Amino acid sequence: MTKESTEVTVESGLSTPDRILLAAERLFSERGIDAVSLREITSVAGVNSAAAHYHFGSKEVVFSVLFAARARPIAERREQLLAALKLDRQGRPKLEDVLRAFLQPALDALNTPQGLVFTMLRARMAFEREEVRREALGKAFDRSSEMALRALAQALPKLKPTELFWRFHFLLGGMVYTMANPGRIESITDGAIDTTDAQAALEHLVRFAAAGFRAP
Asked: What radius of gyration, in Å, describes the C-alpha atoms of the chain?
């Protein structure tokens, strides 16, 4: 996206903080945090640098506030679905239900313009400084991830905690890679597979992850 097109986006009567956040979202998602300066953000937002320092103080704070705001709907929906899981007579949820409750809110975000920008921002996180990644992801998703891990442990009571954590790690990898939409499988299959189909991606990922979690 060019600077000019971003400027058009932010010229919509928004408050100064919102204009800063919107400009930062576009720039961060395209180039990452370290490649963008606070001065550039304020220039694209059409506000002076003093306003950015007054409202946020630094670009790291801008990113933290932005990521938390965009992640909140996903985390809250995930928590709702996990809290509503049905239990069997042994008090255990079905594994596929747990996986679907965890994955669906993130993959559903692919169906909205805001969600698409957020997925680009989320994909960029893999290349950011560790302290930036851990703080932003921790604040946004620790609660929902802990809920998912408890539900997975209930569904798979014989699975050792270390195995559970490793398999959850790979679940996160599959989810983030799918959200990032790199287009590799589309290229390999000449477009026969469309990973932007969020519902299809969800069902395939649930089946794949369930097999991995149930493996010896």
From this structure: 19
